[in-house]
């Protein structure tokens, strides 16, 4: 299986590294070619152009947003034109539902396969091959990707034939995380003002009801008001909440907590928080209580 | 250590059973004496009056609400009058912060010890001695309770000298659970209307980001619209959200998600949902999307 | 008709003045007797004690809150004890529904009449006899008060026999005003950041769709960020929103905008805004947009 | 001044009629030519094509939405191509801010004038020349339109040189109206369940604090649950709230009441309310209280 990997940002580079370690022959491409050096040193071949990267059985993309994904697929010299008929585009970026729908339709019309398989996990999880992967697409195409999923993640899930549904599930997962951040922020604001140590509260909760990394990591970040450096920046999280709300609008589904989160992110951005981790929305409740973020009076 | 247990509802009876199995000599009391039979059969002694139950080193109460707790403590023939000086009232009920404050102050004035130690867990967890216990109070008093906590729960946490803070943490824990229910309900409403199987979504989430019983159990309840029989009824959950908001009002802390949850519970009750499990608020988002609860069109 | 007036704060003193100017023989009483001087100079007689004020056919009260009203009615030497059977208590304070219900029941049991007749208008409207009055109570009792209403207000409305319903309507009126303030604040935040002069916007709106003093005055206050001196302070407005939400809880009616307003007021108070006019909640939207209150960047 | 009028829906036809009655020589055009008959009978000349309608000093458009406006301006045979240099496009439709910005820029580049002048008022107000008009654009161009505004409305307002700001003010005006509808709905839900006649409440409020047609008409509609026939349909109102929120997103301004209104409209549409008047969102609060819309139990 000839595999190409397009998009060598922090996530993509870590994922490509996992594939190399798992023994895949890999061709890599990035707009800014300097990003490929560590990977070529580890055995990847550099594709000098996107067109050459398209000489593959499976072309994986891991890109920042809809615009980048559509440029790679629909642009001159792009995937739609140069990927062979019968080959497969495995799109692992976090895309909006309409974007995934456009990609799926265009590839189908061109006789190419398409699988949406966004991931949960930060760059360190990607480097450790500990991602969670949610895949959807035509069943044969998804099955063909399984060895790649096994090399990239600790677990993968398949969702059926409609590729954009994987992107919707990814958006819903990020929504659940953002909701947990907001609720932790409100509880910490209250407890901090009441005089309870917020970190102790997070310890108690994550040793009892919520023994999961998300609650622990975001809870501790909020309790300590540590929002830099960002693992996942507020603008990217805001983009995902907007994509969720757009999908919900298209289906006529009101989502009151998502609406509230949208307003939290807008405020954070308006106040200059674009460089902060998305957990920083969890500091706003303390501010509204007249406390410093982190919730403690002193 | 002479231990008495007052309040033999479903939770209390299961907890008293755990203490008997752990070898404690136990005296039990309930307003309706029939509730004590299984326990006396298992070796507990029946206290015919509350006054006699007060002949103890530690008197444990597990009661439905503030009113019941205050009746037992402040009523004629009550704990405040008959518990010996130097003995200890271990209050494991879910109480409001002001109620806990009144109990702590009254016991202190009477020369009696007081510990607040509310629990997380349903009756089946109580019967299996798998509760989580959050305790606060004067450190010597809390230490004296530790053998009881070890017999009742899988883990206990201490929070400092101010007893009502344990009750506030309990309210915050229930708030985090209710928030997760609401967010799961919104995600399921959207996915169900989009054509994704909600149970599959819950499986994916609880096998990846949220591998905890709360997300699994409530998520599956919402996906299947199964809200009866109730493990924790909507009116009790509503009471806890109200207590949380009252505590927040007293400290001037706005809690927008808690406000939203309050409105969800009010609506559920107004629509006749008083007998339902609190997870039923998670079915409202699907209804607002014009779908049956559970989120699936058909 | 012998009329007594109890409660000579800014509103009460202005209202008592209107009654004097209309020719009523008036006896006045205030806890702090200095407040009565201008009125006695204008012809009122001073009642040295509340008991003596009760020698009246109609005793009017205009007091700050539930607590003050209940102290005057239920306290030793209070109205319930000393008002003659067949005489009437005309309560014009803004009270909660349960408080009004307690007053109505107690007076009925004592053979005294009771009318709730809260007012809309600030002290300057009271001084100009331009209040709006909303009255409820037994129809004969309300009819007996009509000459007083005519002297105090530009218009009065009767609502039926259940006195506390007048208090509920008053709370709803304040809720409509607070909602308008919040919405004006949001619109002004947006327009200000877009570069539109907020005062021009207020002019346009109040010259077209909303030609009423409330929109004009609060809109201009928000546009100019002028929240002092307060005509109606944030803590009093917050109290009214809380009373509204309590009434709604008792009837199981979710009120999402009222919940949002409650959180706005809590935030304003937490940030130290207790001395500000309630219109100051209208400045929070601009702050959340990263703008100074008033909405203009510079 | 040669004036052409494009868009003869209910609003447009009524406005064109006002211009004829004021003595303007008018050429009219509509995609479906049957709509022009009453106007030609009243003295208008029919333009058989849009191109011929462009032979004018001022071309007025009154169209349903962004799409219709952009088709008329940018389409083959459209205004941008055929309107003479120096002539003026007076756009009175309710458009989004980005759409107005595109129109303004294109006309400027083509050497044509452009004024945005959306209106407040329903078809009956248009027929009676009682509209309120909010205009923005280059000052000479706006001044040239003044005789038209005088013939169409009871009052017009100018806002400065940036044409899209008039559209933003229009969106904000509709937002204030929708907010008032929601708040009236909540108050009526509460009062109705408490046993107060909602129509009496609306009478009291609109005879005192809010003596304006909007509060009276929408309040009575909600109190009586009369939402058909629609004066302004829920989908159009929803579109305006979405446009407002998009403008707010672009400027990073959180608008919590607007977010809540968006969710109300989505729910109304999901429940099948597309044919209803936008006031129907005011019936949802009663439904959430377990009452029929209109708020009265029986």
Element layout with pairings:
The structure is a homotetramer of 298-residue chains.
Chain A: E1 3-6, H1 10-21, E2 26-29, H2 37-41, E3 45-46, H3 50-53, E4 58-61, H4 66-74, H5 79-82, E5 88-91, H6 97-109, E6 113-116, E7 119-120, H7 123-127, E8 131-137, H8 139-152, E9 153-158, H9 164-194, H10 198-206, H11 213-224, H12 234-250, H13 256-270, H14 284-288
Parallel strand pairs in A: 1-2, 1-4, 2-3, 4-5, 5-6, 8-9
Antiparallel strand pairs in A: 6-8, 7-8
Helix pairs in contact in A: 6-9, 9-11, 9-12, 10-11, 12-13
Tell me about this structure.
4 copies of one chain form a homotetramer. With 298 residues, chain A is of the alpha/beta class. Helix content of chain A is 52%, strand content 12%. Chain A contains 14 helices and 9 strands. The longest helix of chain A is centred in the middle third of the chain and has 31 residues. The radius of gyration of chain A is 20 Å and the shape is elongated. The model of chain A has no long low-confidence stretch (mean pLDDT 95).
In short:
The first copy, chain A, has helices spanning 10-21, 37-41, 50-53, 66-74, 79-82, 97-109, 123-127, 139-152, 164-194, 198-206, 213-224, 234-250, 256-270, 284-288, and strands spanning 3-6, 26-29, 45-46, 58-61, 88-91, 113-116, 119-120, 131-137, 153-158. With 298 residues, chain A is α/β, with parallel strands linked by helices. In chain A, strands 1, 2, 3, 4, 5, 6, 7, 8 and 9 form a nine-stranded mixed β-sheet that branches.
């Amino acid at each position: 299986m000839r595999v190409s990997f397009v998009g060598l940002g922090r996530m993509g580079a870590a994922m490509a590294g996992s594939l190399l370690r798992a023994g895949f022959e890999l061709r890599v491409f990035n707009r800014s070619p300097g990003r490929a050096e560590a990977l070529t040193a580890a055995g990847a071949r550099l594709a000098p152009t996107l067109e050459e990267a398209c000489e593959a059985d499976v072309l994986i993309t891991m890109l920042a947003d809809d615009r980048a994904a559509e440029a790679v697929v629909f642009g001159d010299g792009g995937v739609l034109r140069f990927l062979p008929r019968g080959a497969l585009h495995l799109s692992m970026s976090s895309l909006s539902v309409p974007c995934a729908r456009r990609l799926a339709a265009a590839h189908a019309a061109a006789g190419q396969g398409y699988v949406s398989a966004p991931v949960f996990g930060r760059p360190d999880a990607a480097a450790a091959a500990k991602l969670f992967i949610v895949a959807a697409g035509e069943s044969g195409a998804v099955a063909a990707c399984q060895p790649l999923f096994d090399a990239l993640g600790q677990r993968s899930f398949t969702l059926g034939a409609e590729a954009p549904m994987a992107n919707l599930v990814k958006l819903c997962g990020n929504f659940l995380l953002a909701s947990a951040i907001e609720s932790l922020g409100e509880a910490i604001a209250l407890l901090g003002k009441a005089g309870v140590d917020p970190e102790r509260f997070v310890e108690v909760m994550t040793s009892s009801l919520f023994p999961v990394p998300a609650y622990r990591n975001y809870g501790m970040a909020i309790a300590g008001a540590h929002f830099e450096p960002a693992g996942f920046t507020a603008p990217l999280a805001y983009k995902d909440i907007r994509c969720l709300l757009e999908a919900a609008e298209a289906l006529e589904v009101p989502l009151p907590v998502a609406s509230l989160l949208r307003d939290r992110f807008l405020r954070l951005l308006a106040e200059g928080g674009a460089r902060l981790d998305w957990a920083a929305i969890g500091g706003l409740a303390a501010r509204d209580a007249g406390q410093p973020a982190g919730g403690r009076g002193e």
